[in-house]
């Protein structure tokens, strides 16, 4: 009895934000080629805080001193929460003149210091107190928080495993319908994607004075950090028995 040559292509719906492109694969006798998507939802393991330091004065030295004072307050807040100041990173630091552009001669009116600081935290319980204390100290103009996943490789592996499982199931369905069985994997390609998290500024809010201020919850309190979604697409070719 002649062996039956079968080539089945199973096209699955793609819901990724990036269009999937199937690689050019030479058709082989007694094979089945399938594509499938997989997904893994991971809890974030890192909270990244960003806030700025801004100070202005009539002289460059005055602006620098004001910024230094604000920086020292921030260091004290970090130490009070059990965090070494060196754990925070400065993204940029600038000292620039401020001009009155309404004046035809572009009069110099002040100097301004701007700096951006970021801090990564593994202990999420420290996020709300630090944000609250920064707001109370009035040393930053903007604050933002972003939850990320640093152990991304493990999440990608789980997404790939899910995609491969779905691809194998599709191959089994095609093979079974034709009275055949799926054999070994002869070819595979993998693409992975993670959702991109964008920093959203969280402006300081005005706090009431006295006992009411102490009772006011932080903006992030009692909320659950959003999970990180990792997706994978697997194209696979299996032999048929």
Estimated radius of gyration: 28 Å
CATH level-3 fold name of the largest domain = Alpha-Beta Plaits
Give the number of domains: 2
Helix content: 25-40%
Q: What key attributes describe this structure?
A:
241 residues, alpha+beta, Translation Initiation Factor IF3, Alpha-Beta Plaits, 2 domains, five-stranded antiparallel sheet, four-stranded mixed sheet, 9 strands, disordered N terminus
Description:
- The protein has two domains: 7-41 and 151-196 and 230-240, Translation Initiation Factor IF3; 46-148, Alpha-Beta Plaits (2-Layer Sandwich), CATH 3.30.70.2970.
- 26% of the residues lie in helices and 38% in strands.
- It is built from four helices and nine strands.
- It has a five-stranded antiparallel β-sheet. Strands 1-2-9-7 form a four-stranded mixed β-sheet.
- Strand 4 (89-100) and strand 5 (107-121) form a beta hairpin.
- Helix 1 (60-80) packs antiparallel against helix 2 (127-137).
- The relative contact order is 0.25.
- Mean pLDDT is 81; it is low at 1-20 and 198-213.
